[in-house]
Amino acid sequence: MTPVGFAARxxxxxxxxxxxxxxxxxxxxxxxxIDDAVPAGIRQQxxxxxxxxxxxxxxxxxxxxxxxxxxxxxxxxxxxxxxxHTPSVIQRNVLENPAWYTAYTPYQPEISQGRLEALLNFQxxxxxxxxxxxxxxxxxDEPSAVAEAVLLxxxxxxxxxGARILVDADIFPQTRLVLAGRAEAAxxxxxxxxxxxxxxxxxxxGLVLQQPGNSGAVVDHSGLISEAKERGALxxxxxxxxxxxxxxxxxxxxxxxxxxxxQRFGVPLFFGGPHAAFIAVRSGLQRQLPGRLVGVxxxxxxxxxxxxxxxxxxxxxxxxxxxxxxxxxQALLAVVAGMYGVYHGPEGLRRxxxxxxxxxxxxAEAIKAAGGTLVTESFFDTVQMRLETFEEAERxxxxxxxxxxxxxxxxxxxxxxxxxxxxxxxELYLVAYALGLVDRPSRAPELFDEVILDGDFAYxxxxxxxxxxxxxxIFHTVRSETQMMRYLRRLADRxxxxxxxxxxxxxxxxxxxxxxxxxxxxxxxxxxxxxxxxEHQTQGWRELIVDLxxxxxxxxxxxxxxVQPNAGSQGEYAGLLAIRQYHLSRGDDARTVCLIPASAHGxxxxxxxxxxxxxxxxxTAEDGTIDLEDLDEKIAAxxxxxxxxxxTYPSTHGVYESDVREVCHRVHEAGGQVYIDGxxxxxxxxxxxxxxFGGDVSHLNLHKTFCIPHGGGGPxxxxxxxxEHLVDFLPTEDSGLTGAAPVxxxxxxxxxxxxxxxxxxALMGAEGLTKATAHALLGANYISRRLAEHFPTLYTGENGLxxxxxxxxxxxxxxxxxxxxxxxxxxxxDYGFHAPTLAFPVAGTLMVEPTExxxxxxxxxxxxxxxxxxxxxxxxxxxxxxxxxxxxxxxPHPAVVVIADDWDRAYSREEAAFPVSGLQQDKYFxxxxxxxxxxxxxxxxxxxxxxxxxxx
Length: 952
Fold this sequence. Notes:
By secondary structure, the chain is an alpha/beta fold. The radius of gyration is 28 Å and the shape is globular. The protein has a seven-stranded mixed β-sheet, with helices on both faces. The protein has a seven-stranded mixed β-sheet with strand order 16-22-21-20-19-17-18, with helices on both faces. Strands 11-12-15-14 form a four-stranded antiparallel β-sheet, with helices on one face. Helix 7 packs parallel to helix 12. It has 31 helices and 26 strands. It folds into three domains: 427 residues, Type I PLP-dependent aspartate aminotransferase-like (Major domain) (Aspartate Aminotransferase, domain 2, 3-Layer(aba) Sandwich); 240 residues, Type I PLP-dependent aspartate aminotransferase-like (Major domain) (Aspartate Aminotransferase, domain 2); 174 residues, Alpha-Beta Complex (Aspartate Aminotransferase, domain 1). The longest helix is centred in the middle third of the chain and has 39 residues. InterPro entries: GcvP, GDC-P_C, GDC-P_N, GDC_P, PyrdxlP-dep_Trfase, PyrdxlP-dep_Trfase_major, PyrdxlP-dep_Trfase_small. Its cofactor is pyridoxal 5'-phosphate. It comes from Nesterenkonia flava. GO terms for molecular function: glycine dehydrogenase (decarboxylating) activity.
């Protein structure tokens, strides 16, 4: 199994080091290791039927062929998606910079200060623009953000929990579809109404408005909001951040919550995503916020420091009682949007907004001057024109496309035109020609300026924003490209990402994101395509997606795949929703029980609740497997009620459970379906197929197994794969028109990053993918064996082997020394490593996953660090140091501490900063000491602190 071609670049160990590692384990081949590690009962019987592996040049050429089939037009469709200029300095130094896109979620804040500051910029910008007190960082897309706001209103409004949620009929259609599906599953009563006619009678739990509306209308909602609140409702406004620079923001109109997308702040269209959505709330609701929230705290010496606050990973802690199943965010895109705000500042954003509005206003005036009818005369960037006949509307759409412009077909007789920061006078003139307002397209575009007005707005004066926003110095001090380049470099240097070091996180698979895989995502033929562009203009995208879905179906052993879910948690939700809808289609209304092992990912339980299922926990046996006796008892206790079981395979304990087929059989016998969580698919590809050994549905994490980078916490893609009988219940590209409710706003979710996974599969081929899995097993078992005498592995399989990750048990050491697993995590920073996964799935342990991409030199460097740390723990056990005196308890050690004039610690400066000799030349210093998390939660601050906060 010697890797060749690109596989040899992707897989870290070469032939010689592979032989060395196998020798330590007592095997003479990878095949022998696999035979002992992977139960024979689940092994697939034949090789994967995938196209032969391509070279890097061939892969890029194939991607060029896909891209060339897409037609790049001027996109004036709008509907929540707008072309934007990504400043080149941000594109090169964030989107295309591995220091940013290979970073992990900032759960270890001391090594994440750069990305946390960038996300805090985003939060501050969003809160300021929406006129509310606090914003998160971030959500997945606008429609699901609206759904999260509805859930927030229902749980926060205790007095009206069971009452209706009223939704403005002038909401984007994709939001309406997603929201309706979520509400039905969660048992929430929705009622769509015409806001222009006032609120209907009856009790109200919450109100959802859109500003500007789907029609483009900008309306003073303050009276409606006031009435709703008087009647005991909470109010959410879906809004546009650019419009908020000119229009009275939701908070100032009285709203409790604002949601939306930050896409037009420098993020490409990406055929629908990934785009960072946002949610902002008034004071008092911050502890109800879903997703991630960056807060300001302090380190051990009192220096200002950032961390994730409050409900971080709450779905892993609260499980079925969690308020959201959001795990992945869109962190990388939130960084881009936040930096766009930093680069332009409030005055720059306002200039952009004024130009966009002025262009839309000029177009509206031209339409009216020619006798045309507008749907609304109060708007920001979207003008809708009502025609007499279907044929007339069709002629206009076709005429605009013929001159290179895509307009929106709103309905049979309505055409929509949306302007944006990329719109030129020439393009406006071409639109005017398509509308029949001028007689030839070749007339000088400057002549269109004659109808552009200045001065007043095309909405009531009462809605003109007068309040200040983005007043923090960060939005006023970075203007030149030199400043921005250095600011981005300075923040990146504060972090540890995969471009510096191995990130040995169990359950998270931080592997190589190859440059060739990443290259195509910013090509205009992929990045500049609107998600609702005509189908004949997007053939390249569609062919790539179909091919990717087919490859994923082959790998997993299922018959169909949908890539629409834009995060792993959303894939879970989509899979469970498919199961629930399947039972309902058969009249099995009572099948509402979802069995979930105690060791499962926390999002499993929260996703099940959102899908309308009741969680029943199945116990874990002493060896870490599912307790079959308890499984039988739970099945017997719920006759004819079992909807599904959710299994992570290999298990969350990092072990191949040999009785997985038996588990699947017992659930099937009880009439239930088997959901196999694909989070650990990196241990299965080419060796076993979930759809073959008992699964009915699985979600996959393209941001884990299939090389989409984590981006500091997102983007992610969580495709859902199903067996034949569940195909009709997949979320589909026609946004639910076939009966399956969509789980994301765009037809293909976060399509913009799909070329990454397609490239990975094309480069690796069937043999390369199988070798990658084998090497993932090799690395994990090698670490487990090498560290066995220092940190025992908690769970192993029948032959004493693990899968692609191992759980190191520190609990006895903690009892003897007082040194905790968290202390070890912080000390690893001094050795230049990101910590393994802490306290999951077992408290007091560390879960380690090296992935196939790490070579033996890096693996040995990690082992050296862990052995040295074990020796430091032994010093405490032997009484040479008290736990509170140990470098483990004081870790990490920033440079400012190491070089301080006063040093009164029980160990030397050298031991603090350079515990092994290899660090003397290449040393990462964290910017802060250990952060006081409790302080940040007690004194919650979630916006940029003033400069003086950094002065000690």
